[in-house]
């Protein structure tokens, strides 16, 4: 009788994309049409990225009026919502991104003020 050999599950390698290796930011902005808040959120995001990420970013704008099923992808419950997909971990910021300091902290581009004081 043959002895049964235990088959091990194939090992899954953690795939690192080029984006995560070179400090590239992958951002997704969920909006609902071209409302004033949606337009403001996009303008604020573009301005912050141009200043602080100097070309190392990609912005995908998802209009939930046209593609409502996409809200499930990132579990969107409010709009506008910015999702930072890369670098990991995923981070979410809700609102029009007008508070520059909070947005920078949310994107991990700046430290929180209470950490700076200490």
Describe this structure in words.
The protein has 118 residues and is of the alpha+beta class. The protein has one domain: 3-Layer(aba) Sandwich (Glutaredoxin). 28% of the residues lie in helices and 20% in strands. Strands 2-1-3-4 form a 4-stranded mixed beta sheet, covered by helices on one side. It is globular and about 30 Å long.
By CATH, the architecture is named: 3-Layer(aba) Sandwich
Query: What's the CATH topology name?
Result: Glutaredoxin
Helix content: 25-40%
SS elements, strand count: 4
> What is the H/E order?
HEHEEEHH
Summing up helix and strand content along with how strands pair, one would put the structural category as alpha+beta
Number of domains: 1
**In whole angstroms, how far apart are the ends?**
70 Å
The tally of helices reads 4
Mean pLDDT: 82
Give the low-confidence spans. Answer: 5-21, 113-118
Could you tell me the radius of gyration in angstroms?
Answer: 19 Å
What is the CATH homology-level superfamily? Glutaredoxin
Reading off the top of the CATH hierarchy, the class is best stated as Alpha Beta
Largest sheet: 4 strands, mixed
Brief descriptors of the model:
118 residues; four-stranded mixed beta sheet; Glutaredoxin; alpha+beta; disordered C terminus
Fold blueprint:
Blueprint: H1 18-21, E1 25-31, H2 36-52, E2 57-63, E3 81-86, E4 91-94, H3 100-106, H4 113-117
Parallel strand pairs: 1-2
Antiparallel strand pairs: 1-3, 3-4
Quick structural overview:
With 118 residues, the chain is an alpha+beta fold.
